[in-house]
Amino acid sequence: MAQKVTPQSEDYSRWYTDVVQMAELADYSPVKGCMVIRPYGYALWENIQAGLDRRFKETGHQNAYFPLFIPQSFIQKEAEHVEGFAPELAVVTHGGGQELEEPLIVRPTSETIINTMMAKWIRSYRDLPMLLNQWCNVVRWEMRTRLFLRTTEFLWQEGHTAHATAEEAEEEARRMLDVYTDFAVNDAAIPVIPGRKSDSERFAGAVRSYTIEAMMGDRRALQAGTSHFLGQNFARAFGTQYLDQNNTLQYVWQTSWGVSTRMVGAVIMVHGDDHGLILPPLLAPIQVIVVPIWRNDAQKEAMLNAIAAFVPALDEVRLQVDDRDDVSPGFKFNDGEMRGVPLRVEIGPRDLAANQVTLARRDTGQKTPVPIADLAERVPEVLREIQSSMLRRATEFRDAHTYIVKDWGELEEAVAQGFARAWWCGSEECEARIKEDTKATTRCIPFDQAGTGKCVVCGAQAEEQAIFARAY
After folding, report:
1. How high is the pLDDT of residue 1?
2. Consecutive 10-residue averages of pLDDT for the chain (472 residues)
3. What is the 3-state secondary structure of the chain?
4. Residue 3 confidence (pLDDT)
5. What is d(CA 126, CA 135) in angstroms, rounded to the nearest whole number?
6. How far apart are CA 232 and CA 230, in angstroms?
7. What is the CATH number of domain 12-271?
8. Most buried among 123, 158, 240, 408, by the most CB within 10 A?
9. Domain boundaries, the chain
10. Superfamily of domain 288-382
11. What is the pLDDT of residues 192-236, one digit of tens each?
């Protein structure tokens, strides 16, 4: 930890990699393009899992698990799906020392194999809706990788549901995007823009794709979660049907939706600074770190006794006491800051004499003396303040770098500085020109729309505004 982080202003990409490695979130794998998630990073992912999994179960979904290997013929059944994923597929051709009769695809996503099973399990309208989710790994052969943001293998959850009507499936796709929005805002303290993907950006095989888009600290966009209305595309390809109440055979209507370990990258880039991570308390593996300060064995004993007396009152807080002998208090402070621990409790001889501690906030650096007797009430209160303050600061940053643009010149300038919100006629030609000339992509068509305007590219009448930005 003696090594310093590259400042964001000097090299944001290097800063990101420094923080991921120096905070011991992840490291590079011997397998090119893959990462090793270290215990601290995995603990952060587990807290993300917990927040999402609770919401999934509250909305009636059940967890299941499906195989890592998918027969190649399954992928080929849905034409748009195979075309979209073909460049990213990892294919197994040999197993057990022999060539396989049919190659197996290492799971890039599970629509095909899950439909195979749904076609077997769904018989009647009584079997609907079927609401499934799985936590798993997937493999997409990426050419340019970055820890957490884009790796050949990554962890995620993928929800898959089947419904009796298109209206129910559409409602489900939007509901799950709302779940992602709620998690991002209230747990990760990341303000997001929910909206619809353009046709060129939608998921391969979907009728409509929805997304939540977040602004990172370098003002680039990150797709933080997606939800897809699949229509009957996969149901027809796999024969996923049910008998309705009139005893008529119908194809089901479906959705799929997912959030990955990319969310870890989002947390890092939205909140981190030149000292390392700043973690929102609801997700932080360690919410509070207690640092005793002593000069001799007698003081050490007194500090540890005092800590042992007040720690039980904080049993609902994820707390760690840093009582290491071989490093200085300053080193411990820096270590906790690098790891993004939201709140530090300092206690030294003077604090003990005054029967108090000093609380130091990671987000603002503010230090406040607090009586030991008040810790059980004050610590959770400060953690809540930090959580809301982080969301407020991230929202203000995003809003300050989001520009309403009226013409091409303003668009070019805006996407170099952040998000551009502009009227767009919906044509692929105009969308392609923006991408080619500005390197910005259509992040989403926000749900909050009002009025009409002129397309920022061609000047034609436009019914919707879109968010354009350079993105990860």
Report:
1. 45
2. 84 98 97 96 98 98 97 86 82 96 95 96 98 97 91 97 98 98 98 97 94 98 98 95 97 98 98 98 98 95 96 97 95 97 97 97 97 97 98 98 97 98 97 97 97 96 97 96
3. CCCCCCCCCCCHHHHHHHHHHHCCCEEECCCCCCEEECHHHHHHHHHHHHHHHHHHHHCCCEECCCCCEEEHHHHCCCHHHHHHHHHHCEEEEEECCEEEEEEEEECCCCHHHHHHHHHHHCCEHHHCCEEEEEEEEEECCCCCCECCCECCEEEEEEEEEEECCHHHHHHHHHHHHHHHHHHHHHCCCCCEEEEECCHHHCCCCCCEEEEEEEECCCCCEEEEEEEEEEECHHHHHHCCEEECCCCCEEECEEEEEEEECHHHHHHHHHHCECCECCCCCCCCCCCEEEEECCCCHHHHHHHHHHHHHHHHHHCCCCEEECCCCCCCHHHHHHHHHHCCCCEEEEECHHHHHCCEEEEEECCCCCEEEEEHHHHHHHHHHHHHHHHHHHHHHHHHHHHHCEEECCCHHHHHHHHCCCEEEEEECCCHHHHHHHHHHHCCEEEEEECCCCCCEECCCCCCEECEEEEEECEC
4. 73
5. 26
6. 6
7. 3.30.930.10
8. 240
9. 12-271, 288-382, 402-469
10. Anticodon-binding domain (3.40.50.800)
11. 999 999 999 999 889 999 999 999 999 999 999 999 999 999 999
Biggest CA-to-CA distance, the chain = 83
> Are 394 and 271 in contact, with CB atoms under 8 Å apart?
yes
> Which of 232-251 are b and which e, b meaning 16 or more Cβ less than 10 Å from the residue's Cβ?
bbbbebbebbbeeeeeeebb
Residue carrying structure tokens 């590219």: 457
pLDDT at residue 78, as a whole number: 76
Strands 90-95 vs 221-231: parallel, antiparallel or unpaired: unpaired
Residue 268's nearest CA partner among 3, 16, 5 is 16
Q: Nearest to residue 220, comparing CAs of 433, 463, 416?
A: 416
- The token duo for 283 is 């997700």
Give the Å distances, CA to CA, from 8 to 4, 12, 41, 218, 252.
12, 4, 21, 8, 49
pLDDT of residue 2: 53
- What pLDDT, on a 0 to 100 scale, did the predictor assign at position 292? 97
